[in-house]
Recover the amino acids of this structure.
């Protein structure tokens, strides 16, 4: 069989990983196979092995590229603002790639951009004056919020506002609204248009964590 020509210029590792990300963004991580990726690139599947060692290598490379998109601002004098900016950016990036959060948590190969990101958060907290113990707790609180909230949003994607309203109406019919008035109020709250200028639930939870860390830091300074 004649070798198919790769689309859009010469093949490279970055182009293979870019095609894998585009496929996963469009159809989900379950659609990503070596054969399907080769079809996307217009090549034979065996040709991929010149650039990647297998699917695990592809997943690790995808994580590298997505993680490297997260901006890590200078934190001199404003540790809280820097972490807040990076955390919101990470949340937005992970939501743009709905497969990414679960893949980051399961990929087995070490990711240099991920290691750099983790060290940046830990270093930002330590340089701000937090103890080793509080830095450890703060780091895990932040990452649990970012990853956990992302996985919740991805898993709870209810579509457009009209689709959400339809789902809500169906759900409200499954129980007595008089018996659960606060849940009913909560559901109706979600059907309201977002407030102008509001940053949403993710930022609200993030600020609770950062404000809590700031209080711990102030208490330590006071002795």
């Amino acid at each position: 069989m004649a070798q198919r020509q790769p689309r859009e210029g010469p093949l490279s590792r970055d182009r293979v990983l870019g095609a894998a990300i585009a496929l996963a963004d469009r159809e989900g991580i379950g659609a990503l196979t070596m054969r399907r990726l080769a079809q996307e690139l217009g090549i034979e599947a065996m040709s991929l092995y010149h650039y990647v060692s297998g699917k695990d290598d592809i997943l690790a490379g995808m994580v590298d590229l997505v993680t490297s998109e997260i901006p890590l601002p200078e934190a001199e004098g404003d540790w809280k603002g820097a972490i807040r900016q990076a955390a919101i950016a990470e949340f937005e990036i992970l939501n743009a790639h709905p497969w990414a959060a679960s893949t980051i948590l399961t990929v087995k190969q070490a990711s240099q951009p991920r290691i750099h990101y983790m060290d940046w958060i830990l270093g930002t907290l330590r340089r701000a004056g937090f103890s080793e113990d509080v830095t450890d707790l703060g780091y895990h609180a932040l990452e649990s919020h970012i990853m956990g909230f992302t996985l919740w949003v991805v898993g709870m994607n209810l579509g457009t506002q009209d689709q959400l309203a339809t789902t809500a109406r169906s759900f409200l019919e499954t129980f007595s609204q008089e018996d659960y008035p606060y849940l009913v109020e909560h559901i109706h709250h979600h059907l309201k248009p977002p407030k102008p200028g509001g940053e949403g639930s993710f930022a609200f939870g993030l600020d609770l964590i950062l404000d809590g860390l700031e209080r711990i830091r102030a208490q330590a300074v006071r002795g």
